Amino acid sequence: TDSWQTLPANSAVIANPVIHSKDDILYFAYANQIASWDNSSFNINALILPDTIYAMTEYGNYLAIITFNNQSGHSQLYLWDRNTSLTTVTENIDLGVLLPNSIQEYKDTLLVFSEDFPNFSNPIRSKIIIQQYFNNSLRTLYNLEGSLGGFSSIYKYLDIVYIPMGLNVGDDRNWYGVFELSQNQINSPYVLS
Predict the structure, then answer these.
(1) What span, in angstroms and rounded, lies between the C-alpha atoms of 115 and 151?
(2) Can you tell me whether residue 160 is helix, strand or coil?
(3) CA-to-CA distance for 84 and 63, rounded, in angstroms?
(4) Which one, of 174, 81, 44, 107, lies nearest residue 36 by Cα?
(5) How far apart are alpha carbons 18 and 62 in whole angstroms?
(6) Least crowded by CB within 10 Å, which of 21, 25, 81, 180?
(7) Cβ atoms of 36 and 23 closer than 8 Å
(8) Average pLDDT, stretch 171-193?
(9) Looking at per-residue confidence, does 121 or 111 come out higher?
(10) 32 in Cβ contact with 45 (< 8 Å)
């Protein structure tokens, strides 16, 4: 027989769900919480975080989660080992005052895509920030003038990350399209084309 669970009526599901390959459990976010389904039981409170969850992805043994605080404008990156008996996360990294869009695991690193508070009157004049988390360190790869193409619309296929965005290239010229972010080998520079 089928078993169904419901989320609270005011819960907005924002982040894409993730089936983690290490435990074959479905994790999905709503508001500031993560629920899980292991094919037999539903845990509505697998993890509770202080802020709204915007994106998540598998990262080794962890679930990498990005949150956003509507009051302070700060984003956080959490690494959670998926242990539901604990109420803590393994690591918590401050991403700064950015509006998160997506997170992708890429060649044993995490790529975080955010916007520096979008300029809604002229979206192409916003800032796109692409950060890399690797070896307990966060660095900015790109700080571009433009806007991302849509919430959580960034996808990885094979060894290329596809990013729909508009870029300002000077002289009031804008380029719109799906850009590729890739790296030929570990420790080589990233290429955005």
Answers:
(1) 11
(2) strand
(3) 12
(4) 44
(5) 11
(6) 21
(7) no
(8) 81
(9) 111
(10) no
How many Å apart are CA 80 and CA 97, to the nearest integer?
A: 22
Separate counts of helices (H) and strands (E) for the chain: 0, 16
Output the CA torsion sign for 109, 106, 155, 123. positive
At 172, list the tokens: 């009031």
Q: What residues contact residue 66 under an 8 Å CB cut-off, 6+ apart?
A: 53, 54, 55, 56, 75, 76, 77, 78, 95, 100, 103, 112
For residue 160, the Cα-to-chain-centroid distance in whole angstroms is 16
Closest of 144, 136, 93, 79 to residue 114, by C-alpha: 144
* Euclidean distance between CA atoms 132 and 8, whole angstroms: 34
> Which tens digits make up the pLDDT trace of 8-34?
666 666 678 899 999 999 998 988 999
Q: CA 61, CA 128: separation in Å to the nearest integer?
A: 29
Tell me if residue 124 falls in helix, strand or coil.
Answer: helix
Amino acid at 160: I
> Using the 8-state DSSP alphabet, how is residue 188 labeled?
S
| Distance from C-alpha of 49 to C-alpha of 28, rounded to nearest angstrom | 13
**Contact 110/133 with Cβ under 8 angstroms?**
yes
Cα radius of gyration rounded to whole Å, the chain: 17
